[in-house]
Amino acid sequence: MRSRFAFTLLPLTLVAGQQIATLTAEVHPSLTWQTCTAPGSCTTNNGKVVLDANWRWLHSTDGSTNCYTGNTWDATLCPDDATCAKNCALDGADYSGTYGITASGSSLKLNFVTQSGQKNVGSRLYLLADDNNYQMFNMLNQEFTFDVDVSHLPCGLNGALYMSGMVADGGMAQFPTNKAGAKYGVGYCDSQCPRDLKFINGQANVDGWTPSSNNPNTGVGNHGSCCAEMDIWEANSISTALTPHAADTPQQTMCTGDACGGTYSSSRYGGTTDPDGCDFNSYRMGNTTFYGPSMTVDTTSKFTVVTQFLTDDGTAKGTLSEIKRFYVQNGVVIPNSESDIAGVTGNSITTSFCDAQKTAFNDKNVFADHGGMAAMGKAFEAGMVLVMSLWDDYYAHALWLDSTYPTDGAATSPGVARGTCATTSGVPSDVESADAAAYVVYENIKVGAINSTFGSA
User: Fold this and answer.
1) What is the DSSP string of 393-437?
2) By three-state DSSP, how is residue 366 classified?
3) pLDDT tens, position by position, 341-380
4) Which residues form the signal peptide (predicted)?
């Protein structure tokens, strides 16, 4: 994952907070998912989803005055981090009307642009175990399966399903000034150590806040929120990437300034996380006919994505050693494509694959620097939260996913070509206008023993 800047492309009043407001009732949409022990032997879980705090209305605790408007804080309500947390309250969400989010049974649909009283772009949601706690996952010696429809996701959009090293209650127990917690989608973190979050660890991110120069709704503060991240699925109809991101500390920690590293800092590799990850993008690995419209995995219709997290001893106590991918479409099990890059073999993510890929692409091996596969496994042991989102990219236009990136590189150089999208594609103002009706659907989530969620591979 290269950037999540577009997560904060919000209506003027939709931001993150720590106190609780009641002007809008917070009712979590229901979403069922299954745990499996063998093919056809699955138990249904009655889960719910919650909208991330950064999309929500933040206003004064004693009224409805915005604490944040455009990309600036109210100087009276929010003169500093601590005072802002006391003065500002986070409100409930109208999931379908304001945000274009609908859930039915095991299916979750996220619309790209929703126009109601204001314009909303994209969304980020988390799976809940109950109304006050995120569902935690340890994927060691397990597989994760879901169905997805990316047929309405063009160049520049990213429908992402991934896991984050967030804590179960959203930080309420650890940070007493955090009154909202998981119930209001608080506590986000990822491997970019995002500094565009309005609240981190029970305090506002006011101090040092610099409004964005190209996004009227976002900015960068002094603090960021770091953790390990497992990108099970980042995709549109053109390209997809499977990417683990290691971290020195697997669960959420707060960083300061450029020491955060990642997309939001002047030194990308200055932090405690791996912002690049070790990715498997079939197009980038040399197979240009595997994933896309009318290809082996045909993105014009729904398909199933299976990801297996294998350990060295075949138990949940072992060390993460391999991440394997399968697809199922029209009843056919499709193994992931093989690498066609000289010096890089295989169709799964292993330590040897990552080391060889970094060498072939002349990329810095930050994944290994931060512990690689073993560190990713430690994040699973600590527990990770399931995230489902749809976003466009103000920083790099998602070219790192579906085009030639860096744009001044030669497409014939190993690792530079990632998809067929033009280097001029993905500009947020363009996609928000031309592709406002875009959407993604995630459904039939299953978690269980290896080969239990989709049949034998």
Assistant:
1) -TTTTTHHHHSBSSTTS-TTSTTTB--SS-TT---HHHHHHHTTT
2) helix
3) 999 999 999 999 999 999 999 999 999 999 999 999 999 9
4) 1-17
Task: Find how far residue 216's CA is from the centre of its chain.
Answer: 22
Active site residue ranges: 229, 234
Which residue pairs from 166-171 have beta carbons closer than 8 angstroms and sit at least 24 positions apart in sequence? 166/126, 166/134, 166/227, 166/251, 166/252, 166/384, 166/385, 167/134, 167/251, 167/252, 168/129, 168/133, 168/134, 168/136, 168/383, 168/385, 169/132, 169/133, 169/134, 170/134, 171/201, 171/202, 171/252
Angle between helices 372-382 and 351-361 (to 10 degrees): 130
Task: Determine if the pTM surpasses 0.90.
Answer: yes
Dist. CA 274–CA 272, nearest whole Å: 7
User: Pick from 390, 392, 352: which is nearest to 148 by CA?
Assistant: 390
Type of residue at 53? A
| Residue 308 three-state SS | strand
How confident is the model at residue 457, as a pLDDT?
A: 41
Q: For residues 314 and 455, which has the higher predicted lDDT (pLDDT)?
A: 314
Starting at the edge strand found earlier in the chain, the sheet holding 88-90 runs 19-20, 88-90, 58-60
pLDDT tens track for 267-323: 899 999 999 999 999 999 999 999 999 999 999 999 999 999 999 999 999 999 999
CA distances from 329 to 142, 146, 303 (A): 21, 12, 5
Residue 277 CB partners (closer than 8 Å, separation 6+): 1, 191, 229, 231, 243, 244, 245, 246, 367
Is the distance from CB of 29 to CB of 101 less than 8 angstroms? yes
Helix or strand run (H / E) with residue 351: helix 351-361
Tell me the C-alpha distance between 271 and 370, whole Å.
10
**Residues 164-217: tens digit of each pLDDT:** 999 999 999 999 899 999 999 999 999 999 999 999 999 999 999 999 998 888
Element (H, E) at 353: helix 351-361
Burial 140-172 (b: 16+ CB within 10 A, else e): bbbbbbbbbbbbbbbbbbbbbbbbbbbbbbbbb
Between strands 88-90 and 19-20, the pairing is parallel
The one-letter amino acid at 50: V
The domains of the chain, with CATH numbers, are: 5-449 (2.70.100.10)
Contact 107, 38 (CB under 8 A): no
